[in-house]
Amino acid sequence: MSAEPETSNIDETPFIDETRDAKSRYGRFNLAVIGGTGVGKSSLVNAVFGHDLAKVGKGLPLTHGVQYFSDDSLGIWDVEGFEIGSTVPPAEQLRGYLQEIAKRPNNEQISVVWYCVKSNDDRLTKADIAMIDELSRAGLPVILVLTKVDWSRNPITGQRGVSKSVEEFVNWLENPVDGHGQPMSIGYERVILTSTSDKHGKGKGHGLGELVAETLSLSPKNEQDAFRIAQRLNLPWKRELARPVIAAATAAAAGAATVPLPIADAVTLAPIQLGMMARIAVIYDIEMKTALSTSSLANLGAQLAGRALASSLIKLIPGAGSVVNAGVAAALTGATGEGWLRLCEHVHTGKIKLDEMNEAWNQYVPGFLDVLRKMAEQRVGK
Ligand SMILES: Nc1nc2c(ncn2[C@@H]2O[C@H](COP(=O)(O)OP(=O)(O)OP(=O)(O)O)[C@@H](O)[C@H]2O)c(=O)[nH]1
Ligand SMILES: [Mg+2]
Q1: Which of 75, 228, 250, 312 could form a disulfide bond with 237, CB atoms 3.0-4.6 angstroms apart?
Q2: What confidence tens digit (pLDDT) does each residue in 339-351 have?
Q3: What superfamily would CATH give domain 27-230?
């Protein structure tokens, strides 16, 4: 890309600063995934968080069978190692693990537990119950996740159903009784049936939407945004986080142009817009460092201020004249934010590859009509 005249005036540091700031503000959500080997823990994590943290994250083997993987918004405690036949019962082994985890830094502390059991096991073992109660006593909210559920469709009603034995297992889990038929209580909050594929290893899975909804509702308030960012199944949650960021930047841009800016000075809007874009990229969990080089970031800023603010364009905007007033600044920033949000969504959902982002942005830069539309919205909003 050839350098545009404004490039030298654009500083990418607001983008980098805002990225760092947003990451630390949103923080990290920590999930413990507990279950025997092969029950489908890693598959679940991949289906919900979209990448194999075990491969890309920083792994920390705490002790035999317990590993911690993390990136900015997500930490996973992967717990599978219970030494069968050891003289120490699993619940006690687990207590030891929890004690070790408690010594770790604040941003690694478990918020929610997925206790995973294969749906075709027909019962919880005594050891399972003891472990779940151990977790619950430690104050951790536990979701009992039944994995590898084999749903089938009733050919007549078209409804999805599970086998009789899974249904019985779920009924028991919802109202557990002991060997004498006496009701008992086990320390999980909810039972959720899931699959990450069908029995042929295909399909997109089921029950995962419910799993993320329940996980969010059991998360502490201050980790909910991190969870919304880390998960990849619910796009509206991300939009809900991004919209206020655009609104704030729009207001800031209007404020910066209270005294109308000569077009040549309109690059003063770039830091506001770059900051906004950084925050949105964090919400969509897009690692901009790999998407855009520093020089292309600066170019991006130049495009924001340059292309959309081309003076020929501004002159066409009624009432704008040769300066950028508050209304134009707000409309430009709002339209830029919307364009960027769409691009980030498309990268997030895989429609656009990360390394194509730089070129793709051209198609998302707001045009004249977008800006006019935003201005009309503002008038209606007043
Ligand atoms: N049919 C079916 N197979 C699944 C499902 N989820 C996982 N599997 C398969 O089960 C096997 C084990 O899955 P993993 O996700 O690796 O299980 P894990 O609990 O992480 O296993 P370990 O890390 O070895 O303890 C893999 O071959 C998966 O493809 C599912 O929902 N349905
Ligand atoms: Mg695994």
Answers
A1: 228
A2: 889 989 998 888 8
A3: P-loop containing nucleotide triphosphate hydrolases (3.40.50.300)
